[in-house]
Fold DUF1963 domain-containing protein.
Amino acid sequence: MLPRNVKILDQVRAEALRRGIAAGDVERWLGLARPSAFLTQGGDGPVVGAIRGPVMLPADAEDPEFPLIATIDCAALPADVTDLPLPSDGQLLLFGWPEESGWGEVMYVPAGVAVEEREQYPPDFPPDDEEFAEVYAEIPPGDLHLTVDISLPYVKTIPGPPWSPPLPGDPPFEEMTELWKDVLGKVPDGPFSGGWTPLLLGGYGTECNGFNPAWLGANPSGRSGHDGGVRGGGPPDHGDWVVLAEFHGGRQGGASIHWVIQRADLKERRFDQARVLVYWNP
């Protein structure tokens, strides 16, 4: 049986050629494919983390400001499941809130470090408040199972001046991008098939209000409208920003949280330098 990645890329190639896209353009696009991890609360893949669950942090770590979305067991991830310099062991904790005013943060606990359990619900997110309780109910706790996946650029183009030139690896192949969205929408257990709470690690991500999330994390002033939040400032250029993780919660209308970071900061475990975006579509 062909691996999932090969089958999906074969579907993309066949559909692109059927639509009359030049074979050379198709292969250039497919050459941009990057490995990624697709984590769901279903499936038969190995357990590599969990949605919500206990908040376990070292005694000297500050209490998180936002609720825990997911904990990833880095040792359970295959080394080549993404092309990111992820830790080889320890726990990666992703915090955030899938609402219009939500931000978030990333914390990393190395293997062997003593931890203690913290309050599950931060003071500003009380579970007995009706509004917050509704969101918690739509993010049910449970194990995360791994599927080795593939990722292609998802956003057609980055807007030109005064916003930014395109990110490297994001050529303006509008037809191919629309085709990729069509293929993703038809994958039975893909990120938009519904039914499970998916988390993506690595790759290009999907989109944040029509923008590439890695670019938008480095250029928060480039965000149009008020559909989400960006934590932190940002340099005038995009640097080597990557999508660390992306969460699609169960909010009505759709909500996603994007944790982005520069590759060098990820390699040096400077997770406090990560930026978090929330795209809320009511």
Q: What stands out?
A: The two ends are 41 Å apart (CA to CA). The chain has six helices and twelve strands. The chain has one domain: 4-280. The longest strand covers residues 142-151.
